[in-house]
Automatic annotation (TrEMBL):
InterPro entries: DUF3429. The chain crosses the membrane at residues 78-99, 111-137, 158-186. This is Transmembrane protein 69. It holds the Pfam family DUF3429. The keyword Transmembrane helix applies. Keywords: Membrane, Transmembrane, Transmembrane helix. It comes from the Eukaryota.
């Protein structure tokens, strides 16, 4: 980590040194000209403007460097994968109930489904808010790009809202799944040069994990029974034995 940080800071130090040398050269030129003219110093305002322009260029370089940084920071990585826990746990509740009892009790199914859809809608709203953040952070974008960011920013939350209102649990999980697929595809195409590269790299495993858990819950709500070999219930084993004898 220390070596990686040193590599990240070294270019910034070189640029700062370059800016400092330019400032020194410019100052020397002013002093020389001033000395020739009678030792009059250049106006302080001119020096401050030069310094402001130099730091503006430096900030632009830092912003460009961050956009191309591919190493995923530790905190976003930990928080991102921790965000999969509610998805995986709700799917795990359904699976564990089937393994132990040979069927999915309605109470367990309803609880897991509600937790799944509610949390999925919240995450979709978060993914849409990233586009608002980009628009607010980059006001230099064209008015058309800003409008697209603001308009699309509310679209994922509409998918989540529709999923919460669906009367059919199977339909709700499918709407939720469609929202995550749309959000992933739009982000990969439209945020390519607007967010750090590591964000889009982090989205791949997180979106895959969320979609797989939603697919599993959707499968359990479709009316199709889970494979009997997953169950350790004596009732299910006896039923399988009777079917084998028949």
């Amino acid at each position: 980590m220390a070596r990686r940080a040193a590599y990240a800071v070294a270019p910034a130090r070189r640029i700062m040194a370059t800016f400092s040398s330019k400032s020194g050269a410019a100052g020397g030129g002013y002093d020389g000209a001033g000395g020739a003219a009678g030792g009059v110093e250049p106006p302080r305002l001119a020096r401050e403007i030069d310094r402001a322009n130099e730091f503006k260029q430096f900030n632009l370089w830092i912003e460009n460097f961050n956009l191309h940084q591919r190493v995923i920071p530790m905190v976003p990585s930990l928080l991102g994968f921790a965000g999969l826990v509610p998805f995986v746990s709700s799917a795990g509740v359904i699976l564990s109930a089937y393994v132990s009892e040979g069927k999915i009790p309605p109470a367990v199914s309803d609880f897991a489904l509600t937790a799944h859809i509610t949390y999925g809608a919240v995450i979709l709203s978060f993914l849409g808010a990233v586009h608002w953040g980009v628009a607010l952070r980059m006001p230099s974008l064209s008015s058309a790009d800003l409008s697209r960011r603001f308009l699309y920013g509310v679209t994922p939350s509409l998918f989540g809202w529709a999923a919460c209102l669906m009367p059919s649990s199977y339909g709700a999980t499918n709407v939720l799944l469609a929202g995550f697929i749309v959000a992933y595809n739009v982000d990969q195409r439209q945020l390519l040069k607007m967010v750090p590269s590591w964000y889009l790299s982090l989205r791949r495993p997180l979106s895959l994990g969320a979609c797989l858990s939603i697919l599993f819950v959707s499968y359990t709500q479709s009316g199709i029974s889970l494979p009997s070999f997953l169950s350790t219930s004596p009732r299910e084993k006896a039923k399988d034995a009777d079917q084998d004898k028949a």
